[in-house]
Each structure stands twice: as structure tokens, then as C-alpha cells.
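Hi L.,

You mentioned the student needs an example of a multi-chain input paired with its predicted structure. This one should do, with 318 residues in total across all chains.
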Amino acid sequence: MKAAEPIQDFYPPEFSHCYGCGRLNDHGLQIESRWDGEQAIALFTPEPHHIAVPGFVYGGLIASLIDCHAMATAAAASYAAEGRAPGSLPDFRFVTASLNIDFLAPTPLGEILELQARPAETGRRKVVVAVELWAADQLRVRGQAVAVRMPDTMEQPPG
Amino acid sequence: MKAAEPIQDFYPPEFSHCYGCGRLNDHGLQIESRWDGEQAIALFTPEPHHIAVPGFVYGGLIASLIDCHAMATAAAASYAAEGRAPGSLPDFRFVTASLNIDFLAPTPLGEILELQARPAETGRRKVVVAVELWAADQLRVRGQAVAVRMPDTMEQPPG
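Structure written out for the whole complex:
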């Protein structure tokens, strides 16, 4: 995979409707994560309505960015760990088991946000991803997500 | 405050633009939290585009709901701790210092989500809030948010 290709482009179509990162969700954020072999980078510019208090980015948006970017990083790191090409079968489908976020400094609106994610632990069924969010050359938010392989119960919609 | 009045209705206008819970943000989620003296309840029905994988709610939306609902709970609990009417001055303006979320079970789309939040620790500058998210009579997500009084640096937009 070239660094220019978003990890999300390798998700199968049925997993590409995610509000955060689904390329097929026209209402969503369409987060794109790019893997360079060691870490994944995502750039995102919030809309003016993604506001918390005047001048600052909404924390729930930041949580969303960290969540999707971490899941993409988990998939990319898993392919890398097995020496396989991203998107090759069997594919990796991760869901978020837990999300821990520390808001270290307010994140200004009107800046490009840069998310940097690295796998801290890459197991077969569980990947722990550490994420940093930078804006205007300052570390603003630190996150950690635990990604687990999607349970069979999520393979089909409930009901 | 009657239980029927959302806590967010007492936020001053300049703090009512939040994407998650600002009544003045037409693009936002407009989360409403109601305090009954011991806990706060918020009901929210996700839109079809708030999807993770087919049939299930997006985790970033859930993080957003927990975040805003916890901050409202922190404000309501702080007024209660001082025996003051919500909205009376000086007002409480909390921001999220940290957010920890455990996704215990997938949350089905198409259901009303019920968020139940209780203050676990109510200090003058820091309130810890425990949140549960229920859907279809099952506990789906557990969250904890640390709310801190808003720093002076956020009183004015950066720039």
C-alpha cells in the first residue's frame, strides 16, 4: 500500500458506511487514515459547526476522529504483522472495545488537525492503539483505543 | 428546576453553540439532559446515518452523547451541591478533561438510547460523572467523564 492510499479504501463495501470513516456515508466525516509502515496519519479540518465553545473544536468530534483512526491503524498494523497486503483475505474487521481520551489543551477551530496513531500492542484478537492529536504545532489530545476483532453477532444487523 | 426542563436550557447563550448539546447549533445533535435531583437522563434516537456497521450505532456518536450528558450532569450536580437554582450566578462552565468509554455490547440502530448519569465525585473544580447507556433494556456502554471548570484561556476564542 502506498502511503497516499487511505486504509479505509481497503474496507469491504459493507463496512464502508461508518459515520466516521465510511467512504459510502455521504452524511459522515469520511476520515482517511494513511499508514507509512510504522504509524498512521489522518488530517482533518473541522467544519465551523463542529464547535464546543466559541473558537474551539467539539470534544465528541475529536473522540470520533480518534476512534476511527485507531481502528484503521489496528487493521493496517495487523496486515503488517502478518506480512500481508492490506485488503487481502481474510480481512481484519475491528470494533472499539474501549476508548480513553485525555484533553490536554483546547483544540482551536480553523486549524488542520493531525492525528498520529501507533500500535502499542498488536495481538491476533486485540490491538491497542495510541493516538495523538496535534493542532497548530501543539499536542492537544492523547487517546488510547482498544480494538478487538468484530464479534460474529455484528456480522448481521440485529432484529 | 422541573425535571422536564433540559439542563442545557440554563447554559448562557455564548455556551449554547456546542455541536453536541447547543440549542443554538442547527447542525448539531441538540442533546437534552434532565436532572431529577440524583441523576440526569437523556434520551436520544440516532439518525440512520449514525451507523457503524449495518444495524449498529456509531461509537463516536455514543462518545459525543456521553460527553455532553456528563458535562450537563456536572453542572446540575454542582448547583445541587451548593443548594442553588440552576442557571443562577455565578454559573458553572465545565469542559471535559478526560473521557473513558467501555463498549460492553453493540448498540442497535433504530432504538431510543437512554443515558443515565450520576456524579461520582463532586468537587469545586472537578466533577467525576459515571454514565450508562441503555438500549432495548440492555446496558450497552459504560462511560466516565472528568469535568473541570473551564480555564480562563477558553473564555475568549484563540487568535
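You could point out the following to them. The domain at 7-154 of chain B is CATH 3.10.129.10 (Thiol Ester Dehydrase; Chain A). DSSP finds one helix and six strands in chain B.

Best wishes,
N.
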